[in-house]
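F-box domain-containing protein (Rhizophagus clarus), 497 aa
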Amino acid sequence: MFKLNEDILFLIFEELKNDSKSLFSCLMVNKLWCEIGIPILWKDPWNYKINYNNKAYLFTIITFYLSDDIKDFLERQGVQLPSVSAQSLSFDYLSFCRSINIDIINEIISIGSSLAYNQFLLQQEFYSLFIKKLPELKWLDMRSIKHQIFYLSEANTRLESLYELKCDTSINATYFYGIARICQYIQKLTIVNIKPKSNYGIAKLIEVQENLKYFKWIDDFDDDNFTNPYKEIFLELGKKADTLNHLELLFFYVDNFDYHYTSLQMLLPKLHKLKTLITNEFIYDNDNILKMLVYNDLEVLNIIYIPIYEASIIIGNSGGHLKEVSLKPYDFAYYDGDFKEFSLTFIRKIYENCPLIEYLSLVFSPSKDHFIEFENLLKGCQNLKLLLLITSNISIRYQTEDIIFENGKELLKILIRSAPAKLRELRFFNDFKFSLEALEEFLENWRGRPAITILTNDPIYEGEDYKKLINKYENDEVIKNFKYEYPVNMEDLNFRI
């Protein structure tokens, strides 16, 4: 068998580091593959979709590193430890590790004992072991933490190199004060808001960071005693405008959303270096403030609920670097008003300001003017790879099925004439419908181009005649996939079949 160079194997395995099934399979090929793969696997061994509390070998490996005195003490407390000889391990596994995940370690600990006190003892020893043994600590997920690890011996040396931290708002503020004393160069910070009240420890942790680039906030609570947890956090984030380039805010919808609405309005105009802006709610009722949202470096704009007028202003104020615009503008679903004019403006803003766009969701009202501007967009945005077309419910409501089919036919003709060469996926949301004849004409004209993936949330294509047509062009490799998909997946431009 042809022998691959070790450096090439390393690069291949690095690409597989998030694909546990493939990486584990590579370990079984031969000794060389195993020796190259194990350090990659153990750099972040908690980052795999496996059932950790059934993986006794992980418990065995970690307990192997405990001193005999500690093992004797734990066994006297009733902890069941595996018998491991000095020659049992083929690798010094923990020497490769650069991460700690408290939740998963706690799952593994449950193998040794079901008693709360014994698990507490095991946690203490495992955390102490990792802090001592790891050459450096890059990633820490401290959700569910029960021990103040920053007091452990060598904690200063290990924690000062921390690159990424995940935590939640249930953790006592004193834990964050301890982390803040040591860790001042965290670049990625993710916070899960499970206890919605002010946590000044998190605010302090953000305050002391000197190079915070990535911030993610996720609301995940079920608590009627809601108090504003955002004010202090967002106030400190605003002071990180010179370094922060990724902002992701996923809010929970509460009856009174003024808590995050007001804080967000104050925060966003300050963050002038953003490259990524992701949030599920965005409403500005002040044009003067809205026009202050100037992001010259913006590459990803992903907002679920946003008026199309506001989205157009943000895109118009971007610096020409946008590669993804993923929106679900709520205007068209609930309100007619000036939607047609606003949506035309939106299309123009895309092709005037986004020459590099690759992934785009486009709100579309079928009309002559919209078709003209849509074709202009296709001609001007030659890097498009994925296009999601969302039809206005307002306009569809008053159209017959014949008109809907005619609009669909015109849309497909435009795609044949002007679709960029890189376009690989089309998604049709709401009431973009195509007759059997129009779809066949489109697919026949697509022949000779790279195979196209088409997703739709319309069950019409589940019919027997459509399935027969689709199967024909799949067999001819004109279609890569043609699938009826759930709306939530359709709207997510990062979703892949």
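The two ends are 34 Å apart (CA to CA). The chain is about 45% helix and 15% strand. ok done for today
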